């Protein structure tokens, strides 16, 4: 059967078997975006508009009507019965998502890269000079240089075609590539930060340490669920695990290739990559069974760093280049935290330093006088706009800023276009503003007629939505060129409370484990792309960093990637990252005796002190 798909203004034609699940088909074509529930029919993010043809329902579509308007269906609830055409409401181009990724600092770390390139000119062999090709090359290179056997097969023709003028690429004394002519100026590496929701990639010039390009990709595994546990469940069979590995590798491969092509760089000139991610993502990337990460005692298969060839990793790079997957700290604290630790070195700072990397999991490290504690708080994906009724990732059309004054709602929208939904920073903004305005109580409920805060013009935007849930209207249809009302629901506020309570409780427990209180913290680094866009004042209103004043909170950008960049540019930093993994003490929150009490306490919002 033929399914025509319009997505992000482009037309795609898919071939599908009769009876195939529509979401699976879209997923396989790399077109599915937004799904958060793994096809269970509860997130409503796989809505597509049917332009022609019909699909069979798996379950009665009546139960999904709250998600779908006329001619819309949930892709996860449909099977293919005939040729059809659809339009995807959430279709956006995943590749080239440059909008919200911060660049690394202009140069990362001190450059002592493992990769070097040497241009050599040799005389051609004669009857009086019968050195082998290898001996001829090695005579021009430092003593003890070795050859990667895989590059030998086409070496004779390569040398002769290049008239014996070639560039040798060496990785720590091993020749991994021979290229015709002088290509010494083309020497690149890649930093890959695999987040549960977003994969961030940076193309780096290994000669200068400059970041040439940075791209983000919505993690292609997300169609199997926004959270790690859903994906671990899918990976419980060998086919499922292979699927998870393929999805993430294929996504990375595509973006690497596009990034290289856009910068006129050959994939083969990328010789090294460093990968960081939470422990589950690293397991998926390596195709390692993650089952034990989901059950107590949450033991990873491996902790130490793993190095493999580019060809083994299946990336768009020189097949003989090297890919380093940095070490994990524990089942829940992964190599992305090693990256943050490398970039912030909290054990070297005076006093108590905390670094928080907010993502689907909030990784927190605490350093004091040479030692480090780390934990991972299961915040869930709310900060990334997921599990929110009209949530979306930080892309064009996302409301990222909200301010409320008198009867006015002012929105900051990415791309200065009509709003389509709310991203994480917008969510924090609107909830903090509603708390400050007195329209949300400390317990997180919208006020009612009985409450004091109800007597103000903005309360007229509070209503009961179609599904019986109370909501605040951020933008009525047409108010900002939007085609539907954009609302924040009571359930969204609850999701945010759950997420912020997990982070806040994690901070409190880590500080307590170190024998302090949050009032003793000297600085709190806020890592991750999200940190750059988070309004610190609003975060304090929510109680995200309990007891830590705004002036001690410092946004530092994508520190996980920055730490990975240090490992890309320096072999000694790579060794250091392994040492860090062995001296950081992980604190397991889910079994910590204080966690539940702290978490429940942190669900409430702090008291507003006026004045
Ligand atoms: S409702 Fe279809 S993927 Fe969630």
Which second-level CATH architecture of the largest domain applies?
A: 2-Layer Sandwich
How many β-strand runs? Answer: 29
- Please state the oligomeric state of the protein chains shown: single chain
- Specify the structural class: alpha/beta
Shape: globular
Q: Gyration radius, to the nearest Å?
A: 26 Å
Strand order of the largest sheet: 14-13-12-15-17-16
Q: Residue-averaged pLDDT, rounded?
A: 89
Name the descriptors:
Ubiquitin-like (UB roll); single chain; 611 residues; binds FE2/S2 (inorganic) cluster; six-stranded mixed sheet; Nucleotidyltransferase, domain 5; alpha/beta; 29 strands
Topology:
Elements: E1 2-7, E2 10-15, H1 22-28, E3 47-52, E4 55-57, E5 72-74, E6 78-80, E7 84-88, E8 115-121, H2 133-138, E9 146-147, H3 155-161, E10 165-171, E11 174-180, E12 188-194, E13 198-205, E14 211-218, H4 228-234, H5 238-262, E15 270-277, H6 279-286, E16 306-309, H7 310-313, E17 322-325, H8 335-344, E18 353-358, E19 362-368, E20 371-377, E21 398-405, E22 408-413, E23 421-422, H9 424-436, E24 462-464, E25 470-475, E26 486-489, H10 490-513, E27 523-527, H11 529-533, H12 536-542, E28 553-557, H13 559-569, H14 571-583, E29 584-586, H15 595-603
Parallel strand pairs: 1-7, 9-11, 12-15, 15-17, 18-27, 20-29, 21-23, 27-28
Antiparallel strand pairs: 1-2, 3-5, 3-7, 4-6, 8-10, 10-11, 12-13, 13-14, 16-17, 18-19, 19-20, 21-22, 24-25, 25-26
Helix pairs in contact: 8-13, 8-14, 9-12, 10-15, 13-14
This protein binds FE2/S2 (inorganic) cluster (FES).
